[in-house]
Specification:
Elements: E1 2-3, H1 6-11, H2 14-21, E2 25-30, E3 33-46, E4 74-79, E5 83-90, E6 97-108, H3 110-117, H4 130-137, E7 153-157, E8 167-170, E9 187-190
Antiparallel strand pairs: 1-7, 2-3, 2-7, 3-6, 3-9, 4-5, 5-6, 8-9
The structure holds a DNA duplex (13 and 13 nucleotides).
Length: about 200
Amino acid sequence: MSKIPSHVFQSLHVAELSKFLLGKLLCTQIDGVLTSGKIVETEAYEGRIDKASHAYGGRFTNRTSTLYEAGGIAYIYLCYGIHNLFNVVSAPEGTPHAILIRGIEPLTGIDVMMKRRGMSQLKPSLTAGPGALSKALGLSRAHNGIHLTGDEVWLEDSGIQLSPDEIVAAPRIGVDYAAEHAQWPYRYYILRNPFVSKPHL
DNA sequence: AACATGATAAACT
DNA sequence: GTTTATCATGTTC
């Protein structure tokens, strides 16, 4: 197992990186407890030119400032007042691209994740969905801006090689407000994986 | 006022 | 079993 180094997040285009991250491992060691899962669903947000992005049109605020930093850190923000959504910041400094992780397949520390989620049975809803997986992994806004090559939150190459026909591209979820950009096929997921958040088709 | 969601309940088939 | 409705919740702009 090897951590994915920062230059990967800065050199691949956000759409390519979103596909690359499928099958990789998202790991956290928080309060000394290791939890991890295989990434099965991602969405690309293409910074300035993407109406669905918080940085559309180059919007720069206290919240979005994290997006403009160099790729390889976390962007975690509060959604609907309840959910902490985890994104991987990509591209070089100054380009506010990011990838929302929408689903993982739990691997390590499943008991801890169920405890964090208040669940007694292992079901897909444990980590299917961006708010759900953040909670399971113990991620919150306290980790906004954290480097993904550190000892608390990181990504690993699992050695899993997906074939192209296992990867589905589709419109993104919950971004109807972005008008025509909502149709961009920037959502990627692993075919028939039960930890994908919504419509499998 | 809007928002990159999740859990639940009630009404279907 | 499945679809549809509703609400909780708080930060951002």
